[in-house]
Amino acid sequence: MSKKFKKALHFLGTGDAFSRHPNNAYFRPDEDTLVFIDFDARNFMRAKREIERKVPKRIYVLITHMHNDHVSGIPTLAEWLRYKCPDYSDSLCICAPEKILVYMAKELFEYRNLSDDMVTFVTTDAMCREEKSWLISAVPTVHVGEHFEGLCYGYLLSIGYLRVLYSGDTRSLDPFLPISCDEFYCDMSNFSGPDRPHLSWELDGEALVRKADDCDVYVMHMSREVREALREEIEGAGLFIAKV
Ligand SMILES: [Zn+2]
Q1: Are 27 and 2 in contact (CB under 8 A)?
Q2: pTM for this structure?
Q3: pLDDT over threshold 60, residue 230
Q4: What CATH code would you report for 10-241?
Q5: CA of 90 to the centre of ligand 1 (A)
């Protein structure tokens, strides 16, 4: 199947939590803005190169949830901007639903000893209300146990002329299937079993293939082993595997 649309997202890594480069994406919605979706410490050097390639006025990190492979690099990014890049030391903005920002504030200011002038927080609600916003809506989803309830999100984004849906880590497709979009980037860590934290190709592949009738579907967040085991089947079904 040929691609219907241009790939709107780029990736710092596409692996799972234990990969050399875990799954974090980025895009530039306009000349002045760079948005990272999640930020693992292992991807810092790649992110630094992208920032230096074309220095933005404003850098956002849009957080899907608080697992380490999604937020662990944020303190390093804040410190690097403050101490090594004085010209854009106030450019970092953390964007997430309010409940996640409360945790992030503790993480950065109490536990990591950053000062509150090193990052700005903006809620996803406020970001959605901004004129010509790149964020259309936050999409609550389910991922792991009870303590993470209400703390895991995907996002519907507006990038150029494309509506781009991003699942974050999820164990259900239900929140995403009804949303119309041009591109859907979907977690496929390939877990099975009753308490699985992620989707699986065996159980969710069919629904994803149906979704691909209406949009380009990219699967992401896979270990190398899972990627190689499923590549033929996924590509044969007309889906794409996200690449760096
Ligand atoms: Zn996770």
Answers
A1: no
A2: 0.95
A3: yes
A4: 3.60.15.10
A5: 28
